[in-house]
Amino acid sequence: MAHDENASASDAEDYMSDMYTAIDIRPGIVTTHTQTRRLKIESKQVENMERLRNRPKISEMEKKMRDDGLAKPVEADSKGFLLLSKMGYKPGMSLGVEKEGRSEGIKEPIALELKSNRSGLGHDTEEDERRKKRMRIYQAAVSARAKAHEALIDDFSERKRWAVHLKQLSTDLQKSRKVCQELDARLSEITDYLRSTHCYCIWCGAQYDSEEELENSCPGKTRISHAGVDEDN
Fold first, then answer.
1. Which of 209, 186, 187 is closest to 198 using CA atoms?
2. In sequence order, which residues have a C-beta less than 8 Å from that of residue 112 and are 6 or more positions away?
3. Rounded to whole angstroms, how far apart are CA atoms 71 and 169?
4. Which whole-number Å values give the CA distances from 66 to 76, 86, 140, in the listed order?
5. Distance (Å, rounded) from C-alpha 214 to C-alpha 220?
6. What is the largest CA-CA distance in the chain?
7. Helix or strand or coil: residue 55?
8. How far is it, in rounded angstroms, from Cα 218 to Cα 225?
9. Whose CB has fewer CB within 10 Å in the chain, the N or C terminal residue?
10. pLDDT exceeds cutoff 80 at 208
11. Across all residues in the chain, what is the average pLDDT?
12. How far apart are CA 190 and CA 177, in angstroms?
């Protein structure tokens, strides 16, 4: 019996479920006053959200109003225009000093510059000067580094040229030494030939009658062996 009561309780419909709280908005379905009011409120909220989303920003609105105001010419019935008219101003004329019949004044209004910070007048100019000074210092430092780099490059190029020059000198010296060795060998051959064949010594500058006289009278076969003899003579 208790089991049947629990089953009947579980099978009972929950009147607080989504099936009863959800609003059916299909055409032709009868709704209550509360449901209709709820639908109107939700629709109004959606419209307000769309309106806020599509509304331009305050800064854009201010800029548009400012541009529209500056684009309009000064009205003829304004006090400023009346004062200028009394002083001889006419539309199209420029404001300023005339020199040699020409006006150097302005015809367009002075451009409006908005300040995005709370600094005083002239602060931006000082900041620009400081910024320019820092830029000049930076450019000077860059220029100094560039010159130092160029000096290093020139020094490196000079060392490289000097190394090439030394290498060329070494090559020329080796060639000259080789030529000297070849000439010394040929001179030795010629000297030996003259001594053995003609009994003539080029260092003595004399021809002897025999090889025995050549060996006894000539100091030697080289210039070095004749050096002391030349000094004594």
1. 209
2. 66, 70
3. 83
4. 20, 28, 43
5. 9
6. 168
7. coil
8. 9
9. N
10. yes
11. 77
12. 20
Query: What's this model's pTM, rounded to 2 decimal places?
Result: 0.30
Cα distances from 143 to residues 31, 97, 147, 150, in angstroms, run 84, 45, 6, 10
Q: How many CB atoms lie within 10 A of CB 196?
A: 11
**Residues making up the chain, counted from first to last:** 233
**pLDDT score recorded for residue 18:** 47
Q: Which of 5-19, 34-48, 84-98 has the highest mean pLDDT?
A: 34-48
Averaged pLDDT for residues 216-233: 74
Enclosing H/E stretch for 211 = helix 211-217
Q: What is the DSSP letter of 103?
A: E
pLDDT at 142 over 80: yes
Give residue-wise pLDDT tens across range 47-83: 888 877 777 777 778 888 877 877 777 777 888 888 8
Q: Return the structure tokens found at 188.
A: 């030795």
Distance CA 113, CA 57 (A): 20
Rounded to whole angstroms, the Cα distance separating 94 from 107 reads: 5
Which amino acid makes up residue 161?
R
222: phi then psi, degrees, rounded to nearest 5 = -120, 165
Output the CA–CA distances (angstroms, integers) from residue 188 to 21, 201, 218, 219, 221, in the order listed.
Answer: 132, 12, 16, 16, 8
Give pLDDT tens digits for 7-20.
444 444 444 444 44
Q: What is the pLDDT of residue 27?
A: 55
